[in-house]
Amino acid sequence: MKKLAISTLILILIVALAYQIKPIQHTANAIASEVRPTSLLNKDSLTIRSRVNVPKGYKRAAYPKGSFEEYLRNYKLKPFGTRIINYDETEYFWQFGHIGILEVPVPKNGLQQCADALIRIRSEYLWDNERKDEIGFNFTSGHYCSWKKYAEGYRPKIRGNKVTFHKTASKNYSKANFYKYLNLIYTYSGTLSLYNELPKINNPKDLKIGDMLIKGGSPGHIVMICDEAVNSNGDKIYLLFQGNTPAQSVHLVKNLEDSQISPWYHLEKDAVIPVSNYTFNSSKFVRFK
């Protein structure tokens, strides 16, 4: 019995040590990536596409001009070295995991968290491309809330999980009202509603720019593919960006696990995928309709 107890104690210590080493190793990788030179970054460039070169043997996947895919890979970035700022204008504590900050304003109300930031980017694309009638998202309750009905003056009445919509406001199709609509979506939608609502990508070979790596829940997390490259064998790699909780600057993330291709990622379904300061333990993917 004594030997069994000692063996059990040793096993517990080994497991505990493993959990302690992992975050230390993650931080060490991040610090090492700060000083390790890379040929994949163009620090003077101000778009996702121009900021990051493709590794040798890869070329960028082709997408039509005006598509959501091209919109994302050409998204504007702030100057290299810009720090991640929280909604309250404080600096985020973790500054080692990104190589670019997207030109996405962070509202001071604190609502634009991880899923919300991607909802905003998708909605602004549809707005800018005269596809406003396609803007709409489910609440976590499952009720659909469209920009079209909101602009017509319909507002939700929420009692527990029961939601009804009533015309209580005047018609208003302005951009300012559009952002009020998004604040409503931020309040009642999130990673769980997106996971339940959106089509799933079951084959990683079908992944493309605009698809999202997601953990639906409270809390959950979500990141978006914003560029794609492929080699002669058909192997694909991807760039990722994310918002976060608390609401903060949307940022293009490093790959802290593979410095040879960072910031590019290989993505596999059900794999463990560390992304900056979050780890997806069983990766799942979804796509906006």
Descriptive report:
The chain is an alpha+beta fold. It has 7 helices and 13 strands. The strands form 4 sheets. Strands 1, 2, 7, 8, 9, 10 and 13 form a 7-stranded antiparallel beta sheet that branches. The chain has a two-stranded antiparallel ribbon with strand order 3-4. The chain has a two-stranded antiparallel sheet with strand order 5-6. The radius of gyration is 21 Å and the shape is globular. Mean pLDDT is 89; it is low at 1-37.
Keywords:
two-stranded antiparallel ribbon; 29% helix; disordered N terminus; 289 residues; alpha+beta; 20% strand
The total count of helices amounts to: 7
Main beta-sheet annotation = 7 strands, antiparallel
Task: Based on Cα principal axes, name the global outline.
Answer: globular
Query: Gyration radius, to the nearest Å?
Result: 21 Å
Mean pLDDT: 89
What's this entry about, in short?
The chain is an alpha+beta fold.
Layout of strands and helices, then pairs:
Elements: H1 2-35, H2 48-51, E1 58-60, H3 68-73, E2 98-101, H4 114-128, E3 136-138, E4 144-146, H5 147-151, E5 154-159, E6 162-167, H6 175-188, H7 191-197, E7 212-215, E8 221-231, E9 236-242, E10 251-253, E11 273-275, E12 278-280, E13 284-286
Antiparallel strand pairs: 1-8, 2-10, 3-4, 5-6, 7-8, 7-13, 8-9, 9-10, 11-12
